[in-house]
Amino acid sequence: MKFNGKTLWITGASSGIGRAVALELSKRNCHLILSSRKKEDLEQVALMCQKNGSTTSVVPFDLGDSVSIENAARMALETNKQIHGLYHFGGISQRSYANDTSIEVDRKIFEVNFFGTIELTKKVLPIMIENGGGQIGVTTSIVGKFGFPYRSSYAATKHALHGFFESLRAENVSNKVLVSMIIPGRIKTNISWNALDKDGNRHNKMDEGQDKGLSAEISAKTIVKKLEKEKKEILVGGSELMMVHIRRFFPRLYYYLATKVEPL
Which member of 87, 97, 150, 154 is catalytic? Predict the structure, then answer.
């Protein structure tokens, strides 16, 4: 995948990994469609991307609102007849135990992380196929590989994304649609601040583990490099990534550690 001259749509581009990836991609002289709910923040990111030599469009929308997604897709596709890459970084996390969390909060997390992500994909995919292919990058999490305390619905949405997009990849090999699953560990972003508690309120705290995590900027360099190489899975983070391999090769050890590791 060569990014030079391509049109690339990035969700969650106003902060965190999405913002960092947008800035890293902007060094490749491409056209970036930048999306999140926060228009003013997106406009600041857009200015930084332009200074790096890329052109930009700001298309704000809410992943939890189907009408908002519909309007954003129409706006983006009216002005961009081809989308070469769609990179999903938008989403919301959770900080609450399953038995304490209201079903409304569970549904909201699914609406944003899963249904919003696949709905936008369904808007863009036909255009990719019509134009001979493209690349889709989907940000999940290491808890998309295994369950983890305090993350029940969040982990479930990430498992669901793996199932959906791995199926989509298999269905579209002949259409030359590439799919990369981006699997971060603990990255130092505001994800824990914005996570939902059991009642749907903001967690408003920085997790200790998150605070010690890899920077978004270093993560972005790894992600973009591996997207260029068309890697199907992109693991990015620190020592916590070992849990993915422990779960696969030493399941009994994983089951023990999952009850001992501090979830925050």
Answer: 154
Q: Is pTM, for the whole model, over 0.85?
A: yes
According to CATH, the topology of domain 7-258 is: Rossmann fold (3.40.50)
Delimit the domains of the chain by residue range. 7-258
| Per-residue pLDDT of the chain in tens (264 residues, 90 and over written 9) | 899 999 999 999 999 999 999 999 999 999 999 999 999 999 999 999 999 999 999 999 999 999 999 999 999 999 998 999 999 999 999 999 999 999 999 999 999 999 999 999 999 999 999 999 999 999 999 999 998 889 999 999 999 999 999 999 999 999 999 999 999 999 999 888 889 999 999 898 888 877 889 999 999 999 999 999 999 999 999 999 999 999 999 999 999 988 877 655
Give yes or no: 87 in active site.
no
Cβ atoms of 129 and 172 closer than 8 Å: yes
